[in-house]
Amino acid sequence: MSEYVERTFVALKPDAVKRGIVGDIISQIENTGMKIVGLKMVQATDQLLEQHYEEHVDKPFYEGLAEYMKDGPIVAMVVEGVHAVDNMRKLIGDTDAREAHPATIRGQYSHMSMDHADEAGRLYRNIIHASAEKDEAEKEVNIWFEEEELQDFEQAHEQEVR
Ligand code: UDP
Ligand code: MG
Question: Which pTM value belongs to this model?
């Protein structure tokens, strides 16, 4: 495999599932030409989230983040493609919807800012997660997926784009 072809972990958070925008978001990922090689609906647990958000566990927002992430099922995915980690981060947009470009997934489907959520005493919801770095991607894929849950297949367009 080319060193530029990467796998990254993506999660459609409980608000995306409840709002019924999972199909739209998956279409946007597929439209890039990247390949979904793992896909399942999962209920997050404290154990999974403490591993997944290891760097945030001691931060003041963690309790609310864990409550948000356990608020319903998530759709967990592994996305493969050329520079998949950076490409998925570009596609999802900045963490705070206030900063996210309107063409990104967070920019299209949310307008809440972290400041407003804090002021209103609400959980901050931002639709989607994607790993930020290649090392983080490998770690997160292993947390959420078993190797045998990942599929090996060729896309119809693969000869043209990779
Ligand atoms: N988050 C939050 N308040 C904050 C920072 C982060 O609620 O002040 C939540 C938010 O859902 C974010 C997640 O914690 O997506 C992880 O934060 P990170 O800084 O890693 O952002 P991401 O990688 O998701 O863009
Ligand atoms: Mg992050």
Answer: 0.97
